[in-house]
Amino acid sequence: MSELLVIHCDSDGVRIDSYLGSALDGLSRSYIQKLIGEEKVKVNGIVISSKKMLLSIGDILEVAVPEPEMPDIIAEDIPLDIVYEDEDLLIVNKPQGMVVHPAPGNYTGTLVNALMNVSDRLSSINGVIRPGIVHRIDKDTSGLLMIAKNDVAHESLARQLKEKTTVREYVAIVNGRVGNDAGKIDAPLARHSVDRKKMAIQFGGRNAVTHYEVLERYKYHTLVKLVLETGRTHQIRVHMASIGHPILGDPVYGVKSERVKHVGQALHAKKIGFIHPRTNEMMVFDSDLPEYFEVLIKKCRSL
Fold first, then answer.
1. H or E segment to which residue 52 belongs
2. Residue 152 maps to which CATH number?
3. Is residue 287 part of a domain?
């Protein structure tokens, strides 16, 4: 069985393997070339065989992607900082550098692999690849995540996220001195029109709102608190870059040359709050800034 993907080309003069590699998340350029060689790609209804074919705006691309074989996700003895646990959920403080759930080419070493080692009950709503995962944060973002142990808890937490009743507060170090003490960024987000692995502010995109507050100013950087109304992919990173203050260390939306060197964005999900699915009690969890974050603050203060 194959999944048929239809893409309307919005670029002129770009190679088909390059375009599809950007347009189709999770599929590498080499895999796209393999599909072309297997005659699984059509342009305007005609099977094509050349990975070097140049596209035109308006071309209709059809890609028959074979369904991947589902690997067995194994439990791994990976240390976890579990902030809270009961029969319905866990609150986990994810370290920077850890991927939340398995994906093609990366089926080990994730938060899910670690969770499966500490709990024999995780919600099944998101399937075998993402058991228990209600929401996610980027690999290089550290901080608090809600994990559901059963489907009832998962549905309740997911509904609260959708209805914007959860508390989601982050702390970040951004480049430059933010002028206003506080502000609101209300700008819709959608996939970048060319680089499909990135998000961008686009008219007609999904509503996205971020509130920021200055906590401390340094000579070349600013420590800010960020509160989410919505939880879109890369929301904080795109929003802060849009006002001229990208997050320190952000490899995608940041600046190429920085005074303080750091791998991965300096962004920490510090606080999370929600109504407990079983007790209806409002629960709020706060976390200390991780060591890497404290080190960065000291470096920014010393410049």
1. none
2. 3.30.2350.10
3. no
Per the structure block, which two tokens stand in for 269?
């999900």
pLDDT at 69: 59
**Parallel, antiparallel, or unpaired for β 199-201 and 189-191?**
antiparallel
Long-range pairs, 78-84, Cβ under 8 A, ≥24 = 78/109, 78/113, 78/114, 78/117, 79/114, 80/111, 80/114, 80/115, 80/118, 82/118, 83/144, 83/285, 83/287, 84/283, 84/285
Structural domain that includes position 245: 169-269+293-302
pLDDT in tens, 100-152: 988 766 788 999 999 999 998 999 888 777 899 999 999 999 999 999 999 99
Query: Cα separations (Å) of 199 from 8, 39, 150, 239?
Result: 18, 31, 32, 10
What's residue 272's pLDDT?
Answer: 98
Q: E strands, 30-181, where?
A: 41-43, 46-47, 60-66, 81-85, 89-94, 142-148, 167-175
3-state helix, strand, coil in the chain (%, to 5): 20, 30, 50
pLDDT value for 3: 76
Contact 258, 175 (CB under 8 A): yes
- Which comes out higher in pLDDT, residue 70 or 106? 106
Token pair, residue 168, equals 């989601």
Separation between Cα atoms, residue 107 and residue 62, nearest integer Å: 28
Report the distance separating Cα 237 and Cα 126, nearest Å.
25
Active site (catalytic) residues: 138
Does 268 have pLDDT greater than 90?
A: yes
Tell me, yes or no, whether 184 and 142 share the same domain.
Answer: no
Q: Report the relative pairing of strands 167-175 and 142-148 from DSSP bridges.
A: unpaired
- Residue type for position 260: V
Dmax over Cα atoms in the chain, in whole Å?
62
Is the per-residue pLDDT at 82 higher than 60?
yes
Instruction: Answer whether 264's CB lies under 8 Å from 249's CB.
Output: yes
Please state the rounded mean pLDDT for residues 194-212: 88
